[in-house]
Amino acid sequence: MTDQIPYWPAAMDLKSAAAYCGVCVETFKKVCPVRPLKFTQSTRGERYLRQRLDEWLVSMDPNKQSAAPRKSLAERLYGGHLENHRA
Fold first, then answer.
1. Would residue 37 count as lying in a domain?
2. Residue 66 included in any domain
3. Does any domain span residue 53?
């Protein structure tokens, strides 16, 4: 099964970075705030770090959880004063 997982290098060219993010190159250029590393003066020498792409993608996730621990239903209903509401 692992032979079906694509290999994504740590540093990708524009086309690979766009594919990694699941968008076409033109869309990637318009929306991606990640700036490439410049290995050469040519745009062909630019590489996008996979780690930075991952950070950007995660930052847009509308489903991400806050770092604060989630309160129980009872704590939310009684404002954290459980001992006053026990029978």
1. yes
2. no
3. yes
Query: Taking the model in full, what pTM does it have?
Result: 0.66
Number of domains into which the chain is organized = 1
Q: DSSP letters along 4-58, please?
A: GSPP--SEE-HHHHHHHHTS-HHHHHHH--PPPEESSSSGGGEEEEHHHHHHHHH
pLDDT score at 9: 94
Mean pLDDT of the residues in the chain: 83
Domain hosting residue 28, numbered range: 2-61
Between the alpha carbon of residue 43 and those of residues 11, 28, 46, 59, 65, the distances in Å are 14, 15, 5, 26, 37
| Tokens (6 digits) for 30 | 């318009």
Q: What local confidence, expressed as pLDDT, does residue 64 receive? A: 74
**CB distance 56 to 63 below 8 Å:** no
